[in-house]
Please model this.
Amino acid sequence: MLRSTRIPAILPLFPPLFKPIPRQATGHRPADHGIRMQTLRVNGYDMAYLEVGTGRPLVCVHGSLCDFRNWSAVLGPLSSRHRVISVSLRHFFPERWDGHGDTYSLAQHVDDVIAFIERLDAGSVDLMGHSRGGHVSFRVAQRRPDLLRKLILAEPGGEIDASLDPDYKPGPWPMAQPIAAAAEQIARGDIDGGLEIFLNALHVPWKRMPATAKQLLRDNAATLIGDARDLRIPFSKADAESIVTPTLFIGGAATRGLLPKVLHALAAHVAGSRTEMIVGATHAMFEQAPRRYSEIVLDFLGS
Model:
């Protein structure tokens, strides 16, 4: 059964200054080691990304209302051993999308990440996704395990069906209504009003958020219009059992709600998977505990 679902990832950090390159990337890593914004043409779209470091490629996929700046807090530690490639999915910043068209969906983003990895022409990569980006990464691993060496899912967003959740009840997802209401406000031009509706539903006080956090959300606000139209299939036991890529599940021990339930349900059925929970952290775990998060990720990738 198709249902409109969304688990947001909201991280307030902006990255260090990066150097844009006014050319299309070729897939070969640049000569210097600074953070560079580049684009790669995938499925008729110029997909933007930041790249820093050398070594085995680690492709990072952000969550809802975020973009390639999502991973700012851990770019330093992770790039000490890896070629870190942080992507912005279709219609997220730096694109200024107006919410029109039918090319915003989880399925489209899965297709784009697959094409992006293929065009990198770097062999099998490590793939890391957070929240909605974790859902995207899960589906990439499900469809194209040949492209991946290892998979990291940081509190993947979505729903689990009756095969994973004995309490599952068909029907509208509780966040569907506030997402629709927020999208309507944003479409009318009331960006802050729409974001406040959305965040209130998550018990996140918009008025107390730092200015940098608010601007990151504003930069991606129109994607909520796409979210309101998007239909996603819940995770099933068969989905989890189909994952053959070595997988790390990582979460915040203090995260509440559906996310921990999804994480543990999937982890229980992904053969050989490893689960790590960061004490005192919530959904924004790599912002709240960047050192510990990086230690866990680097240990998994190096094992």
